[in-house]
UniProtKB/TrEMBL annotation, chains A, B:
Keywords: ATP-binding, Kinase, Magnesium, Metal-binding, Nucleotide-binding, Thiamine biosynthesis, Transferase. Gene3D superfamilies: PurM-like C-terminal domain (3.90.650.10), PurM-like, N-terminal domain (3.30.1330.10). Mg(2+) 4 binds at D29, S44, D74. This is Thiamine-monophosphate kinase.
Length: 328, 328
């Protein structure tokens, strides 16, 4: 528009291979796509705002990765196969030195998962990115939050806690001297959406969520929607040596693992009968998984540490500390 | 998220009837929808930013209508039937007195077109709204910009120019004493997406665009994509008595009609052979249409006023004046 940016032609159009199910991408009033037969569409929308979800001076390539990876993680949590993405990009001024690395990183991740950018809007205003991703799940299956049953085992992918440690580094430069500070900062932005793991879990998991608000909060979403309780063994939480070194103790690293948000790992539940098939089903994805607890009746989440029950007060404090975004 | 708003449960969830093709709306990692067989999906994303697309103190019910209507207008321009919408809402602080009228207005318009809100993200930051709307078009038809042929007639729906007059009122209080100022201000925000007209044109129009950047700019999009030229009769542009009274002369009202953006009327082209079917096809929609010119060969847009050709210089000046969004 006159008086508005039109960055789409220059930065976003014609950057990708055309998917066969995309009849029309950028350049008309709408995109036109052909959904597959016998599939449902999974759709998720997420916004990253400068000052809230990333610092305004964060590397643009990291911001692009975080924006797309966090959205793809929602598809992964449903077991969906990614297909299309729409981008709304708001910037104070067109800035080539920011846009180029942003777009390079965005399309690198999109291409890796065969996701095509089908639509976009570029507007003038405070820096923010809203993406709407779409993917496919079978007509009769998807990984929802409401399927966990008493007796199911609780698993997580990957290691937990590093995103929170990375945030410590980003927000307080005094943490930059700690071990693995740079690695953890990068990990905060550059997560790996667990797309392959999610797809492989479609026939095995009874419920699934991606860890964006922190394990305690996100597992609680499963419990609430499934109307069940759980016991969770803090000692079992998977933490990296880098995180333990950064935190100074294994115990502190475990606390990070409990509450760290924007991890974009999956937390899922598996019936006893399918437990022994898990490793085989995930082998081709190279995804580490760890059993961290079990679903039980009731509506409470009981935390155990060294076999001792953590008090409700302590648990509430952890949940309240929870995951804090960037502040202005 | 802790430290983030979760306004979805309170303001957005359970406000609507459930469409039969929506298996899962708000409350999980993704929405799940069932696309119809033998249809393609039309998708459009648009952002409204406070200070750019509306003044921060604009009535929230008007902002909500403008956000959804401008997105639905993109579906109308493809001839699509609306189905689903995702909303990303960014606000500095949760503000009930703003959210309630915003949501009431949003859902009133959504319900009118049987559009269901399937996903949302509410984040902390400068006020903005990004919507992604989706609708259906047949597998073998859609109103694109690239189908105009030499000899086709050029039409617009409704009256033009009122949105620009409304903007005059919004930006300069001294215009509030002019005739119909309040009506035109409201018209700026409260457009009628031409959904029914778009659907009715699916078998008749060779090209279509919605007027968001101004008639001159948007008709140029059709000409560019269709690789044709056109002649446009300024005298034929449909303007209301209210606009003429506000502008002080019919001539000035016609200038507004040429460049006024965010009109959300349709501009479309129709082959000679279908011209006499138009009125019958649109009769049930109650949509006024006006023939304003004709497609011809070449790549130029010739403007005629009283049968006299407007100079290219004048035309460029109009195009450059074009449509300006709110400034800061």
């Amino acid at each position: 528009m006159p008086g508005e940016f039109n960055l789409i032609e220059k930065y976003l159009a014609n950057r990708q291979n055309q998917r066969k199910d995309v009849d029309l991408a950028l350049g008309d009033d709408c995109a036109l796509v052909q959904p597959p037969e016998n599939a449902r569409i999974a759709i998720s929308t997420d916004t990253l705002v400068a000052g809230t979800h990333f610092l305004p001076d964060a590397k643009p390539e990291w911001v692009a990765h975080k924006a797309l990876a966090s959205n793809l993680s929602d598809l992964a949590a449903m077991g969906a196969t990614p297909a299309w993405v729409s981008m709304a990009l708001t910037m104070p001024e067109p800035d080539e030195s920011w846009l180029e690395p942003f777009c390079d990183s965005f399309f690198a991740l999109a291409d890796y998962y065969s996701v095509q950018l089908i639509g976009g809007d570029t507007t003038k205003g405070p820096l923010s990115i809203t993406l709407t991703v779409q993917g496919f799940v079978p007509r009769d299956r998807a990984l929802c939050r409401d399927g966990a049953k008493v007796g199911d085992w609780i698993y997580v992918t990957g290691n937990l806690g590093e995103s929170k440690a990375g945030l410590d580094v980003i927000l307080d430069q005094s943490n930059r001297d700690k071990p693995f500070a740079d690695k953890l900062e990068q990990r905060h932005y550059m997560s790996t959406p667990r797309i392959l793991a999610g797809q492989s879990l479609l026939n095995l998991a009874s419920a699934c969520v991606d860890i964006s608000d922190g394990l305690l909060a996100d597992l609680s979403h499963i419990l609430h929607r499934s109307d069940v309780g759980a016991v969770l063994n803090i000692d079992a939480l998977p933490v990296s040596e880098a995180l333990t070194a950064f935190c100074g103790s294994h115990e502190q690293a475990l606390k990070y693992a409990l509450t760290s948000g924007e991890e974009y790992e999956l937390c899922f539940t598996v019936p006893e009968a399918y437990k022994n098939m898990l490793e085989g089903a995930l082998a081709h994805t190279g995804t580490q998984i760890t059993c961290i607890g079990q679903i039980r009746s009731g509506n409470t989440l009981e935390l155990l540490e060294d076999g001792e029950k953590i008090s409700d007060d302590q648990q509430l404090r952890w949940l309240a500390e929870g995951y804090e975004h960037f502040k202005g």
